Amino acid sequence: MIESSHLPAGGEGGRRPGGDARVPKTAFNHLVFWFLFAQGGIIAAILIPVHVLIQGILGPLNIVTVVDRHYDTWVSALGNPIVKLYLLVLIAAPFFHFAHRIRYLIVDLGFKAGKSMPAQVVFYGGAVVVTLITIWVLLTTVPIGS
Amino acid sequence: MSTSEANATPREYPWRMPANWWTRSRHYFWYIVREFTAVPLALWLLWLLVEIKRAGDGPARYSPHGSAPFVIFSVVVLLFSLYHSFTFLSLAGSILHFKLLDRPVSASVIVMSQFAAWAVASGVIGFFLVWLGR
User: Fold this and answer.
1) pLDDT tens-digit map of A9-33
2) How far apart are CA A37 and CA B30, in angstroms?
3) Paired strand residues for B99
4) pTM reported for the whole predicted model
5) ipTM score of the complex?
6) What 8-state DSSP symbol labels residue A6?
7) Which CATH topology does A35-141 take?
8) Chain A CB contacts of B73 below 8 Å
9) Model confidence over A73-84: pLDDT tens digits?
10) What's the number of domains chain B is made of?
């Protein structure tokens, strides 16, 4: 029996081994994950470098004052709902991009299991878990308006 | 084709690329580096999440990370981060196709707009990170 993975990708324009025409089908799963991959990638590209530069290098070296270097300023910022929403997007969205990239990195390095359904559940599920943890941390660490 | 040939189990041609294929060409190597950028970036964002969680420890116990190993880690992450940004934003010219006043926008203009957005966003976020820390 020929496995579906050996057939042309996309589900359109091909024929089944028996000769009958294949029914065109929209790949909604691909649509969702490619959208999340692209959005996570653009957010990671545009937002992360400046955070790493300022919060990870310039702040710790005391070259500039940074919001998370002092408890009062950090808590004050974290109590703002707009900051919470921004941090949720900043942290959670890139993980859907990372999940896709790391999964295909594993495949590219020869581990075909990266294409399996369990691997997809682990990687994309991991991104969902990070999202849920981020929401929980943002809502419980410093309540809105405190 | 005989009946026996038609019913025979299809031959499989499993992927046999050696695991170190990406070391054989500079282009392959940088492709894998681009894919790998996800790992250090993910680690740094998890650190940021921990930094947020630590704000719940109270003023007496809160002390921001500032050790030399952390700064070195951040420098390494910044290099990967910049590589991700350059490669991802440069791809926009190949991915995005749209028209403006019935004329197609050129790839170079699209790429420049992405880099301009990156510069503006970095300036605004950098300003707030410093301004909110006063």
Assistant:
1) 444 444 555 555 667 777 777 788 8
2) 20
3) B104
4) 0.83
5) 0.85
6) G
7) 3 helical TM bundles of succinate and fumarate reductases (1.20.1300)
8) 56
9) 999 999 999 999
10) 1
